[in-house]
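Reviewers asked in the last cycle whether our approach scales beyond single polypeptides. To address this, we selected a multi-component target totalling 438 residues and predicted its structure end to end. The input consisted of the following lines:
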Amino acid sequence: MIQSLERVIEQHPFFKGLEKAHIQFIVGCAKNVRFAEGEVIFREGDPANEFYFVREGLVAVELMVPHRGFTTVQTVGAGDVLGWSWLLPPYQWRFGARTLEATRALAFDAACLRAKCESDHHLGYELFKRLSSVITERLEATRLQLMDLYGVGA
Amino acid sequence: MASGLEQPGIAAAADPMVPRPLRIERMRQDTHDTFTMDFAPESEFSFAPGQFNMLYVFGVGEVPISISSDAARKSEFQHTIRVVGAATSALKQMKKGDAVGIRGPFGSSWPVAEAEGHDCLILAGGIGLAPLRPVIYTVLAHRQKYRRVVILYGTRTPEDILYAPELKDWRGKFDLDVHVTVDRGGRDWRGNVGVVTSLISRAAFDPSNAVAMLCGPEVMMRFSLLELQKRGLTAQRMYLSMERNMKCAIGLCGHCQYGPTFVCKDGPVFRLDRIAPIFGKAEV
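The resulting structure, written as structure tokens, was:
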């Protein structure tokens, strides 16, 4: 089981290039999880104790909007990282996540990784570089969404 | 691989500046602001996927519109039109039997033959799906000639999805990988939400052996190209359809000049490496 997780994590583009020892540590913080269609993975405001790599399925990142209900701001699918609220204080989810399809993912123990990043700055820097790249992509995507690209005159 | 700049060898009308009046055979509303017009000319009409016609509403004006139908069906052709100005608004007001002046087909075409034997990535945004629909028909008709075929389509809302019934059919095909995303999904939308660029990292294709064809808003294409480059696709394997203010459609008037090229004559389909130095430049 551990071997299989190690292979999955090693081969994921996000972790590509990490030292073997770091990969082995990360494997120790990871587990396979499954969610049924429509299941809540985490709720806005709850402690951000885990983050996820979606392996299969589709997840809606959503926000509760008064008078409109839960509104999907983005979906993440296979190969995507789900969640970065675990990274920065106050370690609470800024958005909620709910599956739109049955979903398989890798879940990582955020407290375990945060503690390791504090004690091993080399690993911390590598993870922050990788997460910065994900956050930048999401920021770019959000900017494009805000531009209303497909509107007349766009 | 061909440049995408060559004319496909289809003869336009004897005098390319003289519109041929054709009656509208059918009209269909696609979305709240987009409709499709069918024409059935008396003689065969040949075009290559990616080419466009100039549509003239008598007394109002002329607009370049891509041909959105199956190039193999020479007895009829279609135009899918979005209402954006005076001429397209006038076209929207027309009905079956009304005459439209048509010149064409003009311009370069998508590299459907060059893509044979390769993975084929079709990436469209909004009304940009219309010029790529003939490519999809061609690929489906000769499916065995292509390896993996991926269609990525992004639009504003679920209500703005163009050719929704066809997309549903295509999604049902086991040998076609179709992903649709919207910028804003309503409560009933169960699909992807996000810009079309976010689908690229999830798409299953071999970057070392793929040909990508892109059509949509220029900003969307710019960011999509960056994502494709990140996946390892080279500029020689990426084609995009450009849009500029086309008037004469035969490279005489200069209205659609794009650096050293004319979009009407050398485009609208360009291979990226041919325009890379000027693509996305504010001055061009």
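The CA atoms of residues 64 and 70 of chain A lie 4 Å apart. We regard this as preliminary and will revisit it once experimental data from Aim 1 are available.
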